[in-house]
Each structure stands twice: as structure tokens, then as C-alpha cells.
């Protein structure tokens, strides 16, 4: 279940990044991705 939540947050973050003018740090804070590290978010978004 924890893995699902992590993946869901990251995918929603990617959608938000593409659809808005927000900075990565703002989106990470909004979706609670800071706890998992910005490296995870950046790695996913680069794909």
C-alpha cells in the first residue's frame, strides 16, 4: 500500500508540473514528496 501511495503522489506531481507554471519544489511540498526526497521526484520527471 505504501508503494502505491508513493507512486500515486509522484504521478500526480508529474501531471501538475506539466499542467502548471509551479516550480518543482512547490509541487513537491503540495503532494508531500519532500519526505521521499527531491531526487525521487526529479528522477521520475526526467523519464
Integer-rounded radius of gyration: 10 Å
Helix content: over 70%
The structural domain count equals 1
Order of helices and strands, N to C? HHH
- Give the uncertain stretches in residue-range form: none
Distance between the termini: 23 Å
The major beta sheet can be summarized as:
none
* Alpha-beta content class: mainly alpha
Strand content: under 5%
User: Number of DSSP strands?
Assistant: 0
Mean pLDDT score, rounded?
A: 78
Tertiary shape: globular
How many helices? 3
Domain HTH araC/xylS-type: 1-47
Keywords: DNA-binding
Organism: Fontibacillus solani
GO molecular function, one term: DNA-binding transcription factor activity
Describe the structure in your own words.
This protein is an all-alpha fold. The chain has one domain (2-46). The protein has helices at residues 2-19, 24-31, 38-46. The mean pLDDT is 78.
How is the secondary structure organized here?
Elements: H1 2-19, H2 24-31, H3 38-46
Domain HTH araC/xylS-type: 1-47
Protein name: AraC-like DNA-binding protein
InterPro entries: HTH_AraC
Amino acid at each position: 500500500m505504501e508503494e502505491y501511495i508513493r507512486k500515486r503522489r509522484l504521478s500526480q506531481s508529474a501531471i501538475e508540473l506539466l499542467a502548471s507554471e509551479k516550480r518543482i519544489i512547490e509541487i513537491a511540498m503540495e503532494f508531500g514528496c519532500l519526505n521521499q526526497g527531491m531526487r525521487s521526484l526529479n528522477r521520475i520527471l526526467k523519464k
